[in-house]
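Appendix C: a fully annotated inverse folding record. The material below is reproduced so that readers can follow the format used throughout the book. The structure is listed first as tokens, followed by the designed sequence.
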């Protein structure tokens, strides 16, 4: 079941968007939604902050009385929410800022099914990709590993160490080249020098010297690797 949050200070807009989601769900019997509506952004943030709620998708107005939608999105990201954010607004003024919080889409009101449904198609395609698995031999056992749970891999001699989203580690007796052959089928994985494979989905920030992952690990960038990595990073999110 997918958790979807609707946040808009206008009750009529909330009802309209909720009805469109119900129609989308009706047309996609393989999907099941739990939709919650919020007329105040602080109520949404409170639910997430108390760890009671982690929406997969957030449909949110940018212009709200107590707090701008962009600021709400920034707070959600700081709290670790990686859900897909779609802004609904009457103006294109904040489109560049929307990219800064990794928003999936920026839709101009009045939003119609014709505009919203293709966005939902892309979102669910991406979410389903994230739930893909690979099989790896870990400690003499074949184990299923969720692709999106892999933050990065570090070469440690003849052993590769996978660092996972739940803070665990998996040790693999294989070469970095063989591991990358498996992971390269997923566009979010890139080689960084000879010692690392990094999941672009888990990069918090990067500069000419370091990558900072969302577990706060800093990976030093070898000379000449920043520009191609930066291009792959932006290409990944622009295509997404």
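Designed amino acids, in order:
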């Amino acid at each position: 079941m997918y958790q979807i949050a609707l946040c808009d200070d206008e009750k009529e807009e909330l009802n309209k968007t909720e009805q469109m989601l119900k129609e989308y769900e009706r047309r996609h019997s393989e999907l099941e939604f739990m939709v919650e509506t919020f007329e105040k952004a602080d109520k949404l943030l409170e639910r997430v902050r108390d760890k009671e709620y982690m929406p997969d998708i957030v449909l949110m107005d940018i212009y709200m009385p107590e707090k701008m939608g962009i600021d709400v999105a920034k707070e959600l990201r700081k709290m670790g929410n990686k859900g897909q954010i779609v802004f609904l607004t009457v103006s294109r003024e904040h489109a560049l800022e929307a990219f800064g919080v990794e928003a999936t889409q920026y839709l101009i009101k009045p939003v119609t099914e014709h505009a919203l449904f293709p966005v939902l198609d892309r979102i669910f395609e991406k979410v389903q990709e994230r739930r893909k698995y690979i099989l790896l031999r870990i400690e003499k056992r074949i184990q299923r590993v969720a692709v999106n749970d892999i933050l990065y891999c570090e070469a440690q001699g003849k052993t590769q160490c996978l660092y996972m989203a739940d803070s665990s580690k998996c040790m693999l007796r294989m070469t970095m080249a063989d591991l990358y052959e498996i992971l390269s089928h997923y566009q979010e994985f890139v080689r960084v020098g000879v010692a690392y494979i990094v999941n672009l989905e888990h990069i918090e920030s990067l500069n000419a010297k370091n990558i900072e992952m969302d577990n706060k690990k800093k990976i030093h960038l070898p000379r000449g690797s920043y520009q191609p990595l930066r291009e792959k990073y932006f290409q990944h999110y622009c295509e997404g």
